[in-house]
């Protein structure tokens, strides 16, 4: 008499034996018979997660502990990159982490250079800010930026004053040319005719004034944004 629903078949393709007391592998969770329930018997692919053997480093021959669910290859590779005492491993680490912190007493090295924007020296992540390594040039850079800003403001003021002076000189010169050798009445009539002819150009002059005002506004906005960026970025370092 057969019982088709009783027991389970072995998961090994070459076996498939019906076992009434099957075994479940605690690594791959497959069902096996008594003959194939060992890890080595069914070539379990997850056996490494249950393997408690401690691998040995091929360079320094020291035991390498594995974390839970960590492969042996990954553990050995991590050991070589971080802890191995062999000269070959040390040379590799020194070639990668060659950017030593410039702060006296700090031996930290980074894989990429972190240059202070004020003193142009290399520092680690912990000491990258000017306040962390007591940067001597931070105040000098701040003073230089303020001087540049003041010089720019003075240049803009001189430009505006120069335009006003040129406009006044042009008006005086035009008045002298208009007077010339004419009598006062003739000069007045000529001035009226010129005023009428210039009225047609008033619209263009106003448009030109608006353009000039817009340019002045944009220039003032650019200076304000530059000052705001400086205040936001002061005390920061940049990774090059």
TrEMBL record:
SUPFAM superfamilies cross-referenced by the UniProt entry: AN1-like Zinc finger (SSF118310)
Gene Ontology, cellular component aspect: endoplasmic reticulum
Entry keyword annotation includes Repeat: yes
InterPro entries xrefs: AN1-like_Znf, UIM_dom, Znf-C2H2_ZFAND2A/B, Znf_AN1
Ranges where the AN1-type domain occurs: 4-52, 95-143
Keyword Zinc listed: yes
Record keywords: Metal-binding, Repeat, Zinc, Zinc-finger
PANTHER family: ARSENITE INDUCUBLE RNA ASSOCIATED PROTEIN AIP-1-RELATED (PTHR14677), ZINC FINGER AN1-TYPE CONTAINING 2A-RELATED (PTHR14677:SF20)
The name this protein goes by in its record: AN1-type zinc finger protein 2A-like protein
Native organism: Leptotrombidium deliense
């Amino acid at each position: 008499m057969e019982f088709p629903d009783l027991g389970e078949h072995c998961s090994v393709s070459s076996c498939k034996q019906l076992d009434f007391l099957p075994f479940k592998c605690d690594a791959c969770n497959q069902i096996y018979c008594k003959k194939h329930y060992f890890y080595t018997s069914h070539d379990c692919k997850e056996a490494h997660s249950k393997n408690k053997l401690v691998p040995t480093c091929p360079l320094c021959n020291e035991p390498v502990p594995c974390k839970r669910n960590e492969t042996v290859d990954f553990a050995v590779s991590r050991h070589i990159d971080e802890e191995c005492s062999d000269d070959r491993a040390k040379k590799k680490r020194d070639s990668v982490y060659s950017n030593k912190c410039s702060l006296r007493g700090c031996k930290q090295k980074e894989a990429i250079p972190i240059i202070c924007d004020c003193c142009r020296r290399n520092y680690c992540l912990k000491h990258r800010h000017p306040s962390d390594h007591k940067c001597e040039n931070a105040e000098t850079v701040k003073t230089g930026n303020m001087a540049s800003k003041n010089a720019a403001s003075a240049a803009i003021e001189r430009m505006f004053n120069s335009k006003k002076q040129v406009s006044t000189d042009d008006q005086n010169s035009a008045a002298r040319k208009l007077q010339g050798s004419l009598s006062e009445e003739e000069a007045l009539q000529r001035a009226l005719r010129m005023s009428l002819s210039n009225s047609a150009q008033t619209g263009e002059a106003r448009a030109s004034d608006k353009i000039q005002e817009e340019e002045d506004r944009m220039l003032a906005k650019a200076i304000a944004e530059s000052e705001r960026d400086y205040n936001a970025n002061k005390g920061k370092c940049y990774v090059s």
